[in-house]
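Now for one specimen:
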Amino acid sequence: MGTKHHKNKKKDKIKLSMVSLGPGDHELVTIKALKALKNCGAICIPTKSHDHSFNRSITYKIVKNLMEEFGFDKPILPIYSPMNFKHDDWQYQVDIIKKGIKEYGSVSFVTLGDSAIYSTVYYLLDIIKKQNKKLYKKSEVIAGITSFSYASSQMKKPLCLGDTAFKIVPLHKRKVPSTTVYMRPKIGMETAKIKENGKIYTFENLNMLGETTTKGKVKKVKKYMTLFIDFIKWK
């Protein structure tokens, strides 16, 4: 069934925060994300401009608006981030992050939307995990609001309701593997019928009393607030 652990409230001091900024409005940034930005030594902001300018950067505008409204100031470290999906580009970004931590003690790396959805964050964390396990253990990922959850709220229409499902479909013709989230199980349900194509985990009572995470599937659902995520096997 795999190993089970309870959420550890006494974590080591965080050196690297991967901070999700939401879908473009600084008022949609979470309190946890705001605290990470206020408490870090410096903020790494990606830019697609060769000269490291932020003239067209939405992330920069969000961070500056937060600084102005909530009365704090941090050094800004620009990170040139071309969308080439090349290892050298990600390594360059990791090197800037490491340099920032060495100089300022801790950094926040910001990303639009939610880091779980098509974000550079996990390319960078994969490299950090291989090169500096100590830093990886002292890193965190802060979730954010997605563009599609915000769009749903604007239209006052649910993405899923009752027994319906919700899909994210990339608009290209290639057949690709999919991460699957299984939600709304019934207490007492046997989990043998749940498919496992990648690496599956069980999450019970997330952010509530009795929170547990289990590598693998629990054999039987004991708590209503239970979900299973079958993560893609990246490597």
